[in-house]
Design goal:
The chain is α+β, with helices and mostly antiparallel strands. The protein has a domain of 141 residues. The strands form 4 sheets. Strands 3-6-7 form a 3-stranded mixed sheet, sandwiched between helices.
């Protein structure tokens, strides 16, 4: 098969809030540094530029660069006495931001080792952010992996070992956006349900995040006006 920007493998670069299960961003396409940069930029935009965050991912190297580019700031360094050029600005990360990676080693299809590494932020801050979470006490990527499984179940084009794979790149990406973001508003997640007057009340990720007050219908989702998102070029 021909392999170029519109043929071959297509990855979903996704970001999810583990507590509300809200999908913050999805960027379909080749697994490139540019797409990693775009998904990180969307996360920053949709969290209002907050830096008091714990970000986790696998060890795909471009994520570290993308996070440093999106959240870091160039700090002017003092010039030493005497002749010579002034030092270049030093890239510094926010003191309240943590980024950690997870690497899984598999043998015969089973995970035999999980290595967790802190990349940005101090160990004390990492422990503090983990203690703040109500859904996990470990650095992990399981919530993204579970979302990927749900997405494959909802989008027949992504079923494994199937003849239903996409033949058109643009249609595939359009279906990815539609199905992925629909999940936020009209897909009740069982683990998000709460008790209300002695009865279980279903909630979607958007409801858990305070973005909606009811489970949307497909008609509501399709007819609601969408606003374009401006993402800077990497």
């Amino acid at each position: 098969m021909r392999e170029d920007d519109e043929h071959g493998d297509n990855w979903d670069h996704t970001a999810i809030d583990p507590e509300s299960r809200l999908l913050l961003a999805v960027i379909p396409g080749k697994r490139t540094a540019k797409h990693c940069c775009q998904v990180v930029d969307e996360v920053k935009q949709r969290t209002g530029g907050r830096t008091d965050l714990l970000l986790t991912s696998d060890e795909h190297a471009p994520y570290q660069t993308a996070i440093a580019q999106a959240y870091g700031k160039d700090v002017i360094q003092p010039k030493k006495p005497g002749p010579g050029r002034p030092p270049k600005p030093k890239r510094e990360m926010p003191k309240d931001l943590c980024y950690a990676t997870v690497r899984k080693t598999r043998k015969k299809g089973r995970v035999v080792e999980v290595k967790r590494t802190a990349v940005f932020g101090t160990l004390e801050l990492l422990v503090l952010w983990l203690a703040r979470l109500i859904v996990s006490i470990f650095i992990n990527t399981s919530f993204v992996e579970r979302l990927n499984a749900t997405d494959r179940g909802q989008n027949a084009r992504k079923s494994r070992k199937s003849y239903r794979f996409s033949k058109d790149w643009n249609i595939h990406n359009a279906m990815t956006y539609f199905v992925s973001y629909s999940y936020n508003f009209y897909w009740p997640v069982r683990t998000l349900r709460i008790q209300d007057n002695g009865k279980w009340r279903a909630r979607t990720p958007a409801m858990a995040a305070g973005l909606a007050n009811h489970v949307w219908t497909v008609r509501e989702w399709i007819s609601f006006p969408a606003l374009p998102v401006t993402v800077k070029e990497c």
